[in-house]
Design goal:
Layout: E1 2-6, H1 12-24, E2 28-32, H2 52-61, E3 66-68, H3 72-75, H4 93-97, H5 101-116, E4 120-124, H6 128-140, E5 146-150, H7 170-175, H8 178-191, H9 197-211, E6 214-222, E7 237-246, E8 249-258
Parallel strand pairs: 1-2, 1-4, 2-3, 4-5
Antiparallel strand pairs: 6-7, 7-8
Helix pairs in contact: 5-6, 8-9
């Protein structure tokens, strides 16, 4: 049994994860559930795109065996007395910017694993901090699930596909691929042996800001601990990641670097 958890508004990125799960399982279940526990008080829970009928058609065309579309009453009931705490792995990146975000994800994915009991589950590299934290959850909570990480699916101009891209106006959509180009530039500098990583990153931050981006973070992180690093070492694995705002729309992207 394969499993692909989603919040709906399916795009080619989600469909690629369904295909990945099908390669490793006889049957694939997709969940469509906008999880309130991973949204902060001022975030876009109510505005998050919902298009269930379209999503169900996409799942059928993709050969999904079943779609799980629970309501809040099924997932959380009337009252909660227990919570999940995450140490260190959510201190930086999206966890540092969105308090409670990953606690909400771990909570709902833990519930999904208990309800669906999959053998494999597919997640996307775009949410790489989520993947790292869920890998730790599987290990520490003794889930018998193998996690698969699918590559980032991009538009022709390099923009990482996301349900939230629908929020971008025409002007912002034209400049949105600039985040990926900035990451590519920094990656090239790192692989070329650049000594002053901070200077390279600050240069790209300034370039993005000049184009109209508001920087949340843009940094190189240790893959294992998801913590920022100032120097690289041969044989290590890193995540070059950024989060930016264009207007009210928050975009994230990353590149994995192995030296």
């Amino acid at each position: 049994m394969g499993f692909v958890p989603t919040m709906g508004a399916l795009h080619k990125g989600h469909l690629s994860l369904i295909e990945l799960a099908k390669e490793h399982a006889d049957e694939v279940v997709v969940s469509i559930y906008v999880n309130p526990e991973q949204f902060g008080p001022d975030e876009d829970y109510k505005e998050y795109p919902r298009q269930l009928e379209y999503d169900l058609d996409e799942c059928e065309r993709a050969g999904v065996s079943a779609v799980f579309t629970p309501g809040d009453d099924i997932m959380y009931g009337d009252e909660k007395y227990l919570s999940i705490k995450i140490d260190e792995l959510n201190r930086y990146m999206d966890g540092g910017s969105r308090p409670g975000f990953f606690e909400g994800i771990v909570l709902v994915v833990n519930k999904f694993f208990n309800i669906i009991e999959p053998d494999v589950a597919a997640f996307g590299q775009k949410d790489i901090q989520q993947f790292r934290i869920l890998t730790q959850m599987v290990e520490e909570f003794n889930h018998s699930v193998d996690l698969l990480m699918g590559p980032i699916i991009r538009a022709n101009d390099g923009l990482a596909l996301s349900s939230r891209n629908a929020y971008l106006n025409d002007q912002h959509r034209k400049i949105a691929p600039g985040l990926y180009r900035a990451l590519q530039f920094v990656k090239k500098q790192i692989e070329g042996g650049a000594k002053n990583l901070e200077m390279v990153l600050n240069h790209q931050k300034a370039e993005l800001e000049a184009k109209g981006f508001e920087i949340d973070y843009l940094n190189l992180f240790c893959f294992n601990r998801m913590a920022p690093v100032n120097e690289t070492e041969p044989g290590m694995k890193y995540v070059l990641a950024g989060a930016v705002y264009l207007g009210e729309t928050r975009l994230i992207d990353n590149i994995i670097i192995e030296l």
